[in-house]
Write a structure and sequence with these properties.
- It is a single chain.
- With 133 residues, the chain is of the alpha+beta class.
- It folds into two domains: 42 residues, no CATH class; 85 residues, Purple acid phosphatase-like, N-terminal (Immunoglobulin-like, Sandwich).
- Helices cover 16% and strands 46% of the residues.
- β5 and β6 form a beta hairpin.
- The N and C termini lie far apart (39 Å).
């Protein structure tokens, strides 16, 4: 794997993240081919399905705290993950049942973040969170 390919993939990912943060909906991006790997490197951010409606994050934008309201089936477990715009994981939490999870954002820099909710490894919601501190 050469440095140019890694840089191109990283740049494409950042562009995709910025577009998702700005528009908040699905869009595809063709990532550059990585040496030694088969496939076309096609990816997309997508937020759809009725399952996604069972999750709400508010207020957005936020300053010191954000509240994540969720409703899961009785024996279901979800994972909440918050990422910086560069793709690095900032926070994760396991959620069960139904309730409201409080995310303390006081120590985070102002900026655009995105969060992912997955159930059994399948992403069911992906959206942006704007933090203004």
């Amino acid at each position: 794997m050469n440095t140019k390919t890694i840089t191109e993939a990283h740049t494409a990912y950042l562009a995709q993240s910025l577009l998702f943060a700005a528009k908040g909906h699905e869009f595809p991006i063709q990532l550059p081919q990585i040496d030694g790997l088969e496939g076309n490197g096609y990816t997309a951010f997508k937020a759809s399905s009725n399952i996604a409606d069972a999750f709400t994050l508010y207020p957005n934008p936020t300053t010191t705290e954000a509240y994540f309201k969720y409703q899961l089936s009785q024996n279901e477990t979800a994972k909440f993950m918050l990422y910086e715009i560069n793709g690095s994981l900032k926070h994760s939490a396991d959620l069960t049942g139904s309730g409201v999870y409080t995310l303390n954002t006081k120590s985070y820099k102002s900026g655009i973040y995105y969060y992912i909710v997955s159930i059994n490894g399948k992403i069911v919601k992906r959206h942006k969170l704007v933090i203004v501190n």
